[in-house]
Write a structure and sequence with these properties.
Helix 4 packs antiparallel against helix 5 and helix 7 packs parallel to helix 9. A hairpin with a 5-residue loop joins strand 6 and strand 7. The chain has 13 helices and 14 strands. A seven-stranded parallel β-sheet has the order 5-2-1-9-10-13-14, with helices on both faces. Strands 7-6-8 form a three-stranded antiparallel β-sheet. The two termini are 18 Å apart. It has a domain of 220 residues: Rossmann fold (3-Layer(aba) Sandwich), CATH 3.40.50.10680. It is α/β, with parallel strands linked by helices and 326 residues long. The longest helix has 22 residues. Bound molecules: ligand FO1. The site of ligand FO1 has 16 residues, from helix 2 and helix 6.
Amino acid sequence: MTASGTSSSSTITVICGGVGAARFLRSLIRVVDPALVTAIINVADDMVLHGLSISPDIDTVTYTLADAIDPERGWGLREETWRAMEAIRRYGDGDWFSLGDQDLATHLHRSGRLADGATLTEVTREIANSWDIGVTLLPVSNDSISTHVTRADSGEEISFQEYFVGERHGVPISSVRFDGIENASITEEADRAIRTADTVIVAPSNPIVSIGPVLAVPGVQNALAASSAPCVAISPIIGGQALKGPAANMLAELGHSPTAVGVAELWSDLIDVLLVDDDDASLSLDVAATGVTPYVTDTIMATPERGARLAASTLSAAQLRIGSSS
Ligand code: FO1
């Protein structure tokens, strides 16, 4: 057994979006062997632009674990150049979504392999291996799913990236739809990783547009229901705010409480324990009232040491469920 109470060979499956999940995974592999960790990653942010297949959450996780991510932006590669984007303006093509010169190589490789008939799972494995990522990275589905949101002001439906990047997530929304989800299915690899994990963790990612589409993929709920592993989540909302991105606004706009309590309410059928930041300790009783066990700790991964402590706390929190059910 390790200091956190988990066996040194326990497998961990983490349900992931982009930046928050990537930072959590980076912290997790400071305290456990990366070979024991599988990340099931959202694909509903994916899009085709300039004919290229772009998978932002998969790439954010890959580049972060490779220590190649641009630390300020939280997406794309560090020491990036943008000459291709400057050149493409010549043709009047949109440059609202920036693809760095080195990052383009990833999209070119992925697009070529998909066109050759490879699955997104296969290409993701190839890219992760090339970057020497010890964690197993799995898209939740090989099928095309794309998040769309309805603008509350005009009623117009726009793609997630138009909302997130084009509008800088500054417009209120009234609904979210995952286009293609009905015909999508969980991959065999993701299904197995959820069913056989010793611990399932829901990363501190946007509950609506990052974790939401993963949980909505047909087969994911069945896999989670079939798992006897403890399921622990980390609240991405602290003091009514997300550390990065529109999660708090989206929760409020869609009628949920933009707090750790709102997150517990959303996932009360799924998770056993919710890690709640020290700042939100006063919400513990309300979290407990949803049927989810609150675990109050420092959830801000501002330094590698704090991240590692959060990862260790998450594994300790999983033992709470095991302890209470045995
Ligand atoms: N985010 C931006 O805010 N602006 C961009 O131009 C942008 C380009 C981009 C290119 C590749 C990639 O993998 C991610 C990119 N992101 C960009 C981030 C991304 O759109 C979002 O962070 C996620 O989809 C939300 O999780």
